[in-house]
Design a protein that fits this description.
The structure holds two protein chains of two kinds. By secondary structure, chain A is mostly helical. In chain A, 89% of the residues lie in helices and 0% in strands. The longest helix of chain A is centred in the C-terminal third of the chain and has 30 residues, at 67-96. Classes of the chains: A mainly alpha, B mainly alpha.
């Protein structure tokens, strides 16, 4: 659960930066055009995926009891997380470092 | 396992909030807002830069603000801050962990929630309109 809290705090900080960079014309444009923006996005993606899938996992384990079900849920969440992470990184690669 | 099965209430059990303290209701809202944010985040990841827009943005802001503030309260509580010292249980029982500073913390996050939602609604609705 400790990683859940830590990732929550990371989402609070990086999500705030993400919102400001996208919506405030004055400071946002400076952040948006620097290397800090994609770095921030990658951290946000990692923390958000962990936090949201761990949350869904906690709900599902509570609703569907049993040790076997818990293991299956954990593995499904892990695979979904890996898939979404690779997909997200690929989106970032295409956005920020496109192949010419 | 047997005791667990006996106490199991399922999804409908989340909504049995009468005869409990207000923290029980906060927990249900925390869970529902979390599910809402997961649905948004899923679509936002798959269709990059998608967001609901207009009143949808306001609803999303409500969910995110609540989830963040209550999450901060839960982190503080989980690590033993602002729940007071354990005391001997004497009739009439008064849940020491739920009164005093813990109750003020709850009030504070709810007040901050209202303030942040008002600010965000202004940002989401009034500023794009010009």
């Amino acid at each position: 659960m400790f990683i859940h809290y830590i990732s929550g705090l990371i989402i609070l900080i990086t999500g705030f930066i993400h919102l400001i960079a996208n919506n405030l014309p004055s400071i946002g444009t400076i952040v948006h055009e620097s290397i800090f923006y994609p770095v921030n996005l990658i951290i946000l993606l990692s923390a958000l995926l962990y936090h949201m899938l761990n949350g869904v996992r906690a709900i599902l384990i509570e609703v569907i009891p049993g040790k076997c079900a818990a293991k299956a849920i954990t593995w499904i969440m892990f695979l979904v997380g890996i898939t979404l992470y690779i997909y997200g990184l690929q989106v970032f690669l295409n956005l920020f470092w496109p192949v010419e | 396992m047997a005791i667990y099965e006996e106490n199991r209430e399922g999804v409908s059990g989340w909504f049995r909030i009468t005869r409990y303290s207000v923290e029980r209701a906060l927990y249900v809202i925390q869970r529902l807002s979390g599910i809402g944010i997961v649905i948004f985040a899923f679509i936002h990841l798959l269709y990059t830069s998608w967001h609901p827009g207009g009143w949808g943005d306001v609803i999303l802001g409500v969910l995110v603000t609540y989830h963040t503030l209550n999450g901060l309260r839960l982190v503080l509580t989980e690590h033993g801050f602002l729940i007071g010292k354990p005391t001997r249980a004497v009739y009439p029982y008064r849940k020491g962990t739920l009164y005093g500073s813990q109750r003020y913390l709850t009030m504070a996050i709810l007040a901050l929630f209202v303030i942040f939602v008002l600010i965000w609604s202004y940002v989401a609705l009034v500023i794009p309109a010009g």
